[in-house]
Every structure is written in C-alpha cells, then in structure tokens.
Design a protein that fits this description.
This protein has 255 residues and is α+β, with helices and mostly antiparallel strands. Helices cover 16% and strands 27% of the residues. The longest helix is centred in the last third of the chain and has 15 residues. It is globular.
C-alpha cells in the first residue's frame, strides 16, 4: 500500500496556475537512467560547480529565493549563514540521494522534506556546519563523507537563511538514524526516479505587490514553484529548488 503523503501547509495563492514541464522532460528514459556517481561528478566539473564552495554571494548576483520570487526588503547580508548536505551514494549503478522529513514540532519548515543541515555556529564555515548538522540529525559519520561540489545558495523566507547546498558522496549506503527531536524520517531516492517527469510539476504563483527578482514593473508577476512527489512524500520550497538545479546540472549540458 502506498505511503500517504503527510499533510503540509503549502501557501498556494488562489491565483495559481499550472506551469511548464520539467526542463529534462524531453530526455528519453535511457538518458534519465544509469546516473552513476561518476556521471554526477563529471557533470559538476563541466558546470564549474565542483570543488570548494563560495563563502558569500557577489553583490551583483541575483539571489535564488526558496519560492522563486524576491521579498522586500532584500537581505542585509549576502554571507552564507546556513548549509545543507546533499549526500549521494551508488547502488546498482544508480546514484541515490539522502533526504529527511523534518519533525513537525520544529518552529520553521516543520514536516517538510529537506537535506540534513542547519545554521552555521559562530566561527564555522559551511562544510563544517553541514557535516556537524548531518551527524546531529541523522548520525552520518563525517569521516565517511567526501565533499565534492555545491549548488547555488537559496534564500529561505521563513527562516531568513542564505543556505548553501553542498554535494557530497559516501562510498556505500551509510548507516543513518533519525534524531527524533529534529527528523521524523530518513529516506533515499535514486536520481533516476527524481528525473521522471511524471513526479514533477510546476505551478505559477503571484502575490499582488510582491517584487520579482530581475523583472521590470508591469511584466508578468508570476514565479515558478516546483514540486516533486516521490516515496510518498511531497518535496517543494527550497529543497525542490535545490533538487531542480541538481538535476539540471546532471542531466543537461552546461551553457
């Protein structure tokens, strides 16, 4: 019997409308499968996103917001203040991605699907914080983790965090245990399944008077919000945007 999708509060406006198909929808099933770790890392190298992560975002670089639109006022700093770990391992020739469902009791993003991670402590850099948080949340052994690259930071509106997702690998399926205070479930999904266009959908949202990053006044005020439904879970918000970029890097050629 399929696992029921937990109820989440999705602040969908009454004016929402269906959006575009996944950017990788035109690929064949063969092209969307056989996604090994080697293929993932090669693509991150091609896109220039392998290696050390940036510590801050340039002042002239548009921010990526968790729901696709900018919020006024803009963040007062472009320093990274949170980090998450997108951990991959390989089984049967397919790279698998570790995800968590946050405990519903948490003050922000409760019940949502996320990568393990959290805010930087004073004096920490992003890799140190991501590894520490992953150990605290799911008991992931930092000694097993190889940091490989990064995804562009995302600004989350609810927690006012500029989050850098770090891409990491482990040599085999790791032993993980959810910390009940923070994590309700730990699970993993092959990238092949996330790349199935049938589990993805885009919605276009708009809120009157809300600015859209890089868009002139008077133009279409809608922005894309992405959803993945997989393993009985609904993935949206910041995590969906991170997975969206991850799949684009892995499946599509660099510009």
């Amino acid at each position: 019997m399929p696992r029921p999708v937990p109820t989440q509060v999705v602040p969908r406006p009454a004016t929402w409308r269906p959006g575009a198909e996944a950017p990788w929808a035109g690929l064949t099933p063969v092209e969307r499968s056989g996604i090994s770790l080697g293929r993932v890392l090669a693509r991150f190298s091609e896109h220039g996103q392998r290696g050390p992560v940036p510590g801050a975002i340039a002042a002239d670089q548009p921010l990526v917001f968790s729901d696709g639109a900018s919020e006024s006022p803009m963040p007062s700093t472009r320093a990274i203040n949170a980090a998450v770990l997108a951990v991959l391992f390989e089984e049967a020739g397919e790279a698998r991605l570790i995800l968590t469902r946050r405990a519903s009791s948490l003050r922000s993003h409760g019940g949502q699907i996320s990568f393990p991670g959290g805010r930087l402590d004073p004096g920490e850099d992003a890799p140190t914080a991501a590894l520490r948080e992953a150990h605290e949340e799911i008991a992931l052994n930092p000694a097993q983790v190889n940091l490989e690259g990064w995804i562009h930071p995302v600004f989350t509106l609810v927690s006012a965090s500029l989050v850098i997702p770090l891409v990491a690998t482990v040599p085999s399926r790791p032993h993980v245990v959810a910390s009940p205070a923070e994590v309700a479930r730990v699970f993993d999904v092959p990238l092949r399944d996330l790349a199935d266009p049938g589990i993805f959908h885009e919605e276009r949202w708009s809120f009157p008077g809300r600015p859209i990053a890089g868009r002139p006044a008077g133009s279409d005020d809608s922005f894309p919000v992405w959803f993945f439904e997989v393993e009985g879970e609904l993935i949206w918000g910041a995590t969906a945007r991170m997975i969206h970029e991850l799949l684009q890097v892995v499946l599509l050629p660099a510009a």
